[in-house]
Design a protein that fits this description.
alpha+beta; 423 residues; 5 helices; four-stranded antiparallel beta sheet; 22% strand; single chain
């Protein structure tokens, strides 16, 4: 889609079948904003028993939705249906006697009360209520995305933007500000002492975050080489130190002025990972049956218990001697990003695949409430690593799990994802 058309609609587009498609993902349901309002009744339909379609609207887009909605409404007199992209404005002239018009197609909606005052109810059907946003920054509010954006929109996970460098596109998800409980409780399986005490943390500014770890394709486009052991464009880059990541950030920001990428802080990372959840993983609690055996991790993470399942690269790591695996395999390694289920904010691989560098060093926790906490930023100090990796024990792949690494350390399970704090 051209930039001009994106600025015109400001929304993810539906194809001829009405299926919503946004970038590389396909959502087999409408992607629609949620809103109700009233406005003056339009001109009555020439045929009150048949929906009115705006002139020039392609029948291939309209037909499926028109038929479904009209049938569900029981062909009530005077129904108007306007179809624009994947938004449906359903203008229902009030029936006499104040009866309720039930609209249940295709979303599960409550009854709409009728009016006798010459107004119509306008419904924009949705599958999910969008997040509350600040229109001062929202790239969709004014129809003007950031200058560096090649893609932008909103779907069931929230707001996203993307940039393209040469032929590589990377999406970022909006992480809203908020409060969360950082760290873990005493009884959480796999817990280590430095994860406590659990304490309230406020993140006061929203920020953007890569929806996947940085891929080898993006690293190579920016830096001109690929240090990874498990070479494959869609796999996360690894064997990169914190110091090297800083060089990457400086280089990519010079290539795309205004992008202003950085690393997330330790607190920002956990806030994004949890996505308003308070369990051991963003998908729920964890039960650890063995060092590398936690069945609840399998749908969301590549870790030591499953990263060798169906492994296809010739240079896979010898895992034949590993014990207590959920899925024993002779070789293991990183996997392509975005293959497991995302968290509620649309972030993939937040647990497992590669450890992810954070901007700051490890902070000693206390019970007191913290506001935008930051660990040490001293030059040469150790930096926090989050997420666990393809060779990690199950205990390391929890939202509160963290480790500490030397800023110059380069290992085959060290990677990163970038953030961008909203100015």
């Amino acid at each position: 889609m051209s930039q001009a058309s994106k600025q015109k609609t400001g929304r993810v587009q539906a194809d001829a079948s009405g299926v919503c498609r946004s970038g590389r993902r396909t959502v087999d349901k409408p992607c629609l904003p949620s809103r109700s309002a009233v406005r003056r009744n339009p001109t009555k339909a020439e045929d009150p028993a048949k929906p009115v379609i705006p002139a020039g609207m392609p029948e291939s887009i309209v037909h499926g939705w028109q038929t479904g909605i009209h049938d569900k409404l029981g062909a009530k007199p005077g129904i108007h249906i306007l179809v624009t992209g994947c938004i449906w404005d359903i203008l229902v002239p009030h029936p006499s006697g104040g009866e309720a018009v039930q609209i249940g197609c295709p979303a599960d909606l409550s009854g709409v009360p009728a009016r006798n005052d010459g107004f119509s109810l306008i419904f924009m059907i949705t599958m999910q209520t969008p997040p509350i946003i600040n229109t001062a920054w929202h790239p969709l509010a004014s129809g003007n995305p950031p200058a560096w954006a090649s893609e932008w929109g909103q779907d069931e996970y929230g707001v996203f933007v993307a940039f393209t460098l040469e032929k590589v596109t990377q999406r970022l998800r909006w992480i809203p500000p908020g409060r969360f409980m950082m760290g873990s409780l005493d009884g959480e399986p796999g817990r280590l002492d430095h994860e406590g005490p659990q304490h309230p943390v406020f993140i006061t500014r929203g920020f953007w975050l890569f929806d996947t770890p940085c891929t080898q394709a993006l690293w190579e486009t920016v830096m001109g080489g690929n240090p990874s052991h498990f070479k494959s464009p869609r796999r996360p880059v690894e064997q990169v130190s914190w110091d090297q990541v800083r060089t990457f950030l400086h280089t990519i920001n010079a290539k795309l002025p205004g992008l202003d990428l950085c690393l997330p802080t330790d607190a920002q990372w956990e806030h994004a990972c949890r996505a308003r959840t308070d369990t051991a993983m963003y998908s729920g609690p964890i039960e650890i049956l063995g060092e590398r055996n936690a069945p609840a991790l399998n749908p969301i993470a590549w870790y030591g218990g499953n990263s060798g399942e169906g492994y296809e690269l010739d240079d896979g790591w010898d895992s034949s001697s590993w014990t207590e695996l959920q899925h024993p395999n002779p070789k293991s390694g990183t996997r392509e990003v975005g293959q497991k289920q995302p968290n509620p904010w649309g972030l993939y691989d937040m647990l497992g695949n590669v450890w992810e560098w954070c901007a700051d060093g490890m902070r000693t926790y206390s019970k007191e409430t913290q506001i935008d906490p930051i660990g040490t930023m001293d030059a040469g100090a150790g930096r926090v690593l989050r997420s666990g990796s393809w060779n990690s024990f199950a205990r390391s792949c929890r939202s509160a799990s963290r480790s500490n690494g030397h800023s110059g350390g380069q290992y085959y399970d060290f990677g990163f994802r970038c953030a961008r704090v909203q100015s």
